[in-house]
Every structure is written in C-alpha cells, then in structure tokens.
C-alpha cells in the first residue's frame, strides 16, 4: 500500500509539472505572436510612410523643377543669397508687419483677457534679473512671456549679441549647426536652418524665417516663425519642429545703465507638455547665467567676419508709425503683471520644499530610467520618454498629495 501511494503521489507531481509546462509554453507562444503582430504593424507603417514620402517628393520635384534652380540655393555663409527681383511676386512676405503687431499685442497681453498666466521662475543677481510666466492654450503649445534685464549693457550690443549665431555656437552647447538659406534684400527677411541637440532626445531641426525692426528711442523688435524651404528637406535623423512663434523687444531701461529684452515664445517640438515645462523651470536660470557670461565677453572680444555679410541684422526695417505708438506701452505694465503673479517668498519656499523629491523617489526614478533604457535596447529616446513620464507622474502625485495635506 505504501508503494502504491508513493506511485500515485509521483503521478500527481508529474501531472502538475506537465500542466505548468503547458501553460508556460502557451504564454510563450502568445507573447511571440503579439510581438510578431506589433513588428509587422510597425514595418508596414514605416513602409507606407516611406512610400508616401517618395511619391509626394517626386510629384513636388516634377512640379517645381523649372523654377527651383533659379530661386533657391543652399550656399556657404560667405555667399549670401538674395532672390531675383521677380521672386517677391511669386513668394509673399513670410514675416510681415502684421506679425510685428501680433508680437506687440502678445508682449502687452492684449490678445486674450481670459488667459490664466502662472508664474514659472524669478531669479536675479548683481548682473541680471530674469522672470518668466506661462499660459496654456486650448489648441496651441504653451505660451511663455519672459523679461530679462542686463546691467551695463546697451540695446545695440544686446541686439547684435542675440543675432550673432556664429558666436552662439561657442557658448550654447545645444546649438549643433546653423546655416543661412536665403536673404531677401528688399524686405530684410532672412531664412535659416538650425539643428539643436538635447540629452536623450533626437536632435530638433528648425527651419525659420525672421525679420528685425527699429522703433523709437533705440527700441528693436524681432519676430521668428517656422517655414519650409526647398534647400532644407526633411531628414529622418532630425525631428522637424512643426510650430514655432517667437519674438522679442529690446530697449533701454529708463534712468539706468541697463537694457531689457522682453520675449514671447511658443513652440511645439514634439515633447510632453509637463516634461517641457519642468525642463524649462529647472534649466532656464543656468542657461540665462551662461548667456550673461557670454554677453560680457562679447563686448570685448574681436568678431571675425565669418557670418554672412548681409543678414536681417544689417537690413533692419522701420517700425510702421501706427505700431510705433502702440509699442510705447512696454515693460511697466508687463512688470506689474509679472509681479502680480509672483508668489510671496515664504509661500514660494514652502512650495519649493514640498515639491522637492525624496531620496527614495530619486533612487526609484534612476532605477526605472536604467531599466527602461536596457529594455529598449539602446533606443534612448524611447527609454527617456517612458522614464520621464513615470518620474513626472510620481512628482505630480507627490505634489497633489502635499497640497492636499497643506490645505487640510
């Protein structure tokens, strides 16, 4: 009887082992099938998009082949391009005076009274001060308004510093490449292509058009927007920025040896909104300090002529009289509105302390970041997006819980 019971026990064990093996093999097959379906889907999607690009590019090339070679050329910085006289009739102004009015209205916050602005940062030292706020739009990217005051700096120096892209390559490590594509001598509109690199992200490509104006009392304006250009076709290794609206006003601060730049910025670089906002809040002050150090060196060093001899900075247009009177309402109202949304020191410090992540959260975030990068097998963009989404979710939950505990 004992031997018979032992045999039955062994049979039960073999049955359980065989059933476990069966379910393991079934799960493995299901996983392999799911991965195969995903792979087929991605390959078909990639093939279909590539087929559409080739057909559309061939069609556009055949349609524009007679005029392409006579209008646009990719060139070196030493040979700036001015389009032929009849190109202005075919191509309307990309950046016009209406864009200048749009910029002035945004700087003076006249477009939408229902916009709810949130203070992002306010910092200052002995050489500069910086404040910024943002506003969420319904169908557009985040809008940013910022004011930076540089002590012991003239408006002309600040203008030349901002427009010198060759010098920017020396101090701005995110700027990988910049080239002038086209310069219109009749209206001062310049078109260029810029490549920017960011950690753990695919490089961003900007094809932009910009124009400068000069108003009363040494006041300067610049408006920049995205555009397309035949000399800068889209490339797989870059992410083309789809939407870009940015501009600034540079003026002398009344009664002081200082200049200020008020900036409006709205950009869709294909990033998560919360991730972009967090990166801006955490990194913008160090970037502005680096900019200030480069500005102090810019006034004393010699600048060899490596940039194009003709650019938007050398063909500054005059602000129309009807807009020059409107632009008189400048930083006084803006500074008041910016200060009104600035939190009290104690309150800001309390919020800062409540939002500071714990060591445990940081350790878990780093662990998740490393694990996701390993799982993505070297695809750093995928790993960064997933890890940052996890970290932002944790930070947001922590902020909500801390705010609820504070209110209670």
UniProtKB/TrEMBL annotation:
Residues 58-79 have a biased composition (Low complexity). This is Polyketide cyclase/dehydrase and lipid transport superfamily protein isoform 1. Residues 58-91 are annotated as: Disordered. Keywords: Membrane, Transmembrane, Transmembrane helix. Residues 113-300 form the START domain. GO terms for cellular component: cytoplasm. Pfam families: START. The chain crosses the membrane at residues 22-43. InterPro entries: START-like_dom_sf, START_lipid-bd_dom, START_lipid_transfer. One of its GO terms (molecular function) is lipid binding.
